[in-house]
User: Fold this.
Amino acid sequence: MKNNPDNLAIGAFAKSAGVNVETIRFYQRKGLLPEPDKPYGGIRRYGNADVARVRFVKRAQQLGFSLDEIAELLKLEDGAHCGEARRLAAHKLDRVRAKLADLLQMEVVLDALVKRCDTRRGKVCCPLIDALHGGSSVATDA
Assistant:
């Protein structure tokens, strides 16, 4: 009974799912994972479906979904709402692309500032520090 994958105590369940016990409890408090009934005098038991659900949550987090977004995806998990799941994923993709555009802009600005730092010698104001104080147009024009 101890090795049955559909009869796991919380510690074995957490290990099978690749998380710690506190993560399991946190997901339960957030409503992402149901808390099984506790038999009188016994301990709660978890199964393969619970392990799969935790892995789903972790994969969704790795893709950048928030816990609230993951909760929405879990509500759609039955497959009957594929269009809604697609809409949520498309919205997340738009946000990821916007962040990437922002990061690329930051890269351009920082690259220009680093190059300006390399050209300055002697007792002059640091171009990077000057730009952060608003004294240089590089930080806002690039």
